[in-house]
Design a protein that fits this description.
alpha/beta; 7-stranded parallel β-sheet; 7 helices; globular
Length: 279
């Protein structure tokens, strides 16, 4: 039996999952659960990675996988990354099938597995846009109205039903990207912002929307710290991030065109900030 700590990772074929496998494969014995095959999704192959191709929306198939995990010695931690999201904005039934029913299936199987910690990957999108001057933090309620936000809020509340069986921690992520800038809105923003174009500092709109971004390397580093220090985290705790980034200096010019389009020109210098977990 391996002396390494063991981990169940759902959503292993996803964006975060693949990067996390690469970061953890030498330090954990990982039971990777995913819809796609290991080869097709481009996940790393390693002796410490045991791949299970399964859809968490199918209770019987998932039960069989968890039974195999039990027979293999069980797992210390369950990290739930599996979720559905698309850019259509439509009320797709898949949101509830995966984000709600799928989560319920995983939690039910964990009652028997009895992990030392269940880590739930949520999103800042679960929260409604804050009032001006009021940033989102770990105390913000999951009150967003988008279907993805609603299903993540249901998931956060669902964890409380299982506290008598195992403790849990909630991590809310921002929109993720890598050096390849897979996230289309961010790609367009950065391509303009970092260029020498005349409009590189011009932002169109009314200033009533925002998307926080997080590099995938920072996300994996943060999750590694959560995994390393999970015994010191309280049951039901939210991972804490800075309430805001300090602006050392900034300038803004706003106005409207004849057609009524609001335009803002922004330039700023910010201080370095780091995410922390209070111990």
């Amino acid at each position: 039996m391996s002396a390494l700590p063991s981990l169940v990772l759902t959503g292993a074929s996803g964006f975060i999952g693949r990067h996390l496998l690469e970061a953890l494969k030498d330090d954990y014995r990982i039971f990777a659960l995913a819809r796609r095959s290991q080869l097709r999704c481009g996940a790393p192959f390693h002796d410490n990675i045991i791949w299970h191709q399964v859809d968490i929306g199918y209770p019987e198939a998932l039960h069989n996988v968890f039974r195999e995990i039990e027979l293999s010695g069980g797992a210390d931690i369950v990290l739930h990354l599996a979720a559905h999201y698309d850019f259509s904005g439509e009320e797709d039934a898949e949101y509830y099938r995966t984000n709600v029913d799928g989560l319920r299936n995983v939690l039910e199987n964990c009652k028997r597995l009895k992990p030392k910690r269940f880590i739930f990957s949520s999103s800042v999108a679960a929260c409604a846009f804050p009032r001006p001057g009021h940033p989102l933090n770990e105390d913000s309620p999951p009150d967003g109205d988008h279907i993805y936000a609603r299903t993540k809020a249901i998931g956060e509340k669902m964890l409380a039903e299982y506290r008598q069986h195992f403790p849990s921690v909630i991590v809310r992520f921002a929109a993720l990207f890598s050096d390849w800038c897979e996230y289309p809105p961010l790609y367009m923003f950065l391509r303009t912002w970092l260029s020498r174009a005349w409009n590189r500092r011009m932002l169109g709109g009314k200033g009533e929307s925002a998307i926080p971004y997080l590099h995938i390397n920072d996300a994996t580093s943060f999750l590694k710290r959560v995994l390393n220090q999970y015994p010191d985290l309280e049951d039901g705790e939210y991972a804490k991030v800075p309430n805001n980034t300090r602006i050392l200096g900034a300038a803004k010019l706003t106005g409207k065109t004849e057609d009524g389009l609001s335009i803002g020109i922004v330039e700023s210098i910010t201080a370095e900030e780091k995410a922390e977990i209070d111990l």
